[in-house]
Amino acid sequence: MTSFSANIKSMLTRRLVMVVGLLMLGTLATSACAVQENNTYPVETFSEMHYSQAYKAQEPPRLAPPADSVAFKTAGDASNTLNVPDKQERAYDPAVAGNLYRVNCSVCHGDSGLGDGKAARHITSGQSFYATTQGTAYAAPPNLVESAATRLTDRDVMVGFVTSGAVVMPSFGKLLPEEDIRDIVNYIFDDTTGLSQ
Predict the structure, then answer these.
(1) Which residue among 78, 108, 119, 169 is buried most deeply as judged by most CB within 10 Å?
(2) Which residue in 197, 196, 179 sits closest to 93, CA to CA?
(3) Residue 116 to residues 106, 112, 136, 193: CA-CA distances in angstroms?
(4) φ and ψ at 185, to 5 degrees?
């Protein structure tokens, strides 16, 4: 009886090992087919939309044009159509220019343009970003009244300077239209109602 139960136990063990082995082989074969490899088209468990014949790639829903729209027709030859108008300039208004200066410049350069704005102490601090990256603190913001009188006497040069920015000064060409920048520069040079009075 002992040898009979040992034979059955051995036979059941072999069958169990064979069944487990077949299950593992089947699982491996099934999972290998579901894995997407580059540049191949295996049997996929989750097919991608761009393989489907019903999917039209990159095609948004089409909108109908407004009912009263018409095609553009040129008003003449190309020289009239492509003509860029001259630069628009507006008359200098000290109140508008003063407000533009106050909003955009006075925080660093001060209300009277002497370089003593509220942000000046942060700009010149030894803990500022400029000081930590350059190794030395930045000098005070320039005195605009003095610059207009001695250093940057040409208004166009100062317009270019304000437009392109400086070391810690932002590029106002990206923030303001040219007319506003010209108004600010005119306000700096204005010796009757502006900063240079």
Answers:
(1) 108
(2) 179
(3) 9, 8, 20, 20
(4) -65, -40
Rounded distance between C-alpha atoms, residue 2 and residue 7, angstroms: 9
Distance between CA atoms of residues 168 and 165, nearest Å: 8
- CA–CA separation, 166 and 155 (whole Å): 16
- Give 126's DSSP letter: T
- CA dist list (Å): 157 to 15, 57, 61, 86: 94, 52, 51, 21
Q: How far is CA 182 from CA 34, 91, 142, in A?
A: 66, 11, 18
Residue in this structure with the two tokens 């077949």, named with its chain if needed: 22
| Residue 155: both structure tokens together | 């208004």
Mean pLDDT in order along the chain per 10 residues (197 residues): 72 86 83 57 55 58 74 65 65 93 94 92 89 90 88 86 89 90 92 86
Residue 149's SS3 state is helix
Structure tokens at 47: 């097919």
Query: pTM of the prediction?
Result: 0.56
Residue type, 157: V
Residue where the block lists tokens 């909108």: 63
Check: CB of residue 67 under 8 Å from CB of residue 77.
Answer: no
Interatomic CA distance for residues 42 and 44, integer angstroms: 6
Structural domain boundaries in the chain: 100-189
Closest CA to 140 of 156, 117, 173: 117
Can you tell me which residue has the tokens 């370089």? 115
Q: Map residue 140 onto helix, strand or coil.
A: coil
